[in-house]
Amino acid sequence: MRCDRSIIVAVALLMALAVSSVSVAGEPTEDIRKTTDRIIAIVTDPGLKEADKAREKSRQIRSVVDERFNWEEMSKRTLARHWKDRTQNEKEEFIDLFGKLLERTYLDKVEGYSGEKVLYVDEKVQENYAIVGVRIVTKQETEIQVDYRLQKKGEEWLVYDISIEGVSLINNYRKQFDSIMTRSSYTGLIEKLRSKVVGEN
To answer: What percent of the chain has pLDDT over 70?
Structure first.
């Protein structure tokens, strides 16, 4: 259950651990920037550089990302038509497993990134929904467009999807998961997720 372009997705999920330039500074963009700054502080913390601190560093990064990502909304959109048939316990388990899947697939790669430039280039807000457009410039001067889709919950803007060059992360997983459930069952999907995220502990 791999997504293509995992390097760019990892950068995007981590709000781009890089030198950033804010040319658009509305509320949704500011919320993303605040999260970026907190993650950079963790990654560059000298007290977390040693190998025996790796687990603690990952825990802190995941904690910050948890505050900005709406895992329930992401899970609901990923399961799509299958969501309404799930019990509350099943929904809670899926939310947990899906978050861990993204963590294992992308967030653990944080140490491999440095030097990308991040430009906040666009922001569109319509009532409680927003899109923040970001352009990531790699060391090879390649530009990649990343769009964060956010929904306002209370006073915070929370991410519920990320599109890389027009390809939605949620749509990508939705197709994969729907295919598994069509060939097998929801139970079959959960077993695959468990083996992926629990079996690696």
So the answer is: 81
Side chain identity at residue 33, one-letter code: R
Q: Does 80 score more than 50 pLDDT?
A: yes
Is 13 within the bounds of a domain? yes
Specify if 1 maps to a domain.
no
**Residue count (the chain):** 201
**Residues 173-201: what's their mean pLDDT?**
89
User: Which H or E element spans position 41?
Assistant: helix 27-43
Range of the domain at 53: 6-197
* Most confident option among 15-19, 51-55, 88-92, 194-198: 88-92
The helix/strand count (H/E) of the chain reads as 7, 6
As a whole number of angstroms, the distance between CA 54 and CA 155 comes to 32
**Number of domains observed in the structure of the chain:** 1
The three-point CA angle 87-82-10 to 5° equals 100
**Does the residue 137 lie in any domain?**
yes
Residue 181 in domain: yes
Identify the CATH number of the domain in which residue 113 sits. 3.10.450.710
Q: Is 151 helix (H, G, I), strand (E, B) or coil?
A: strand
Using the predicted structure, report yes or no on whether residue 60 has a pLDDT greater than 50: yes
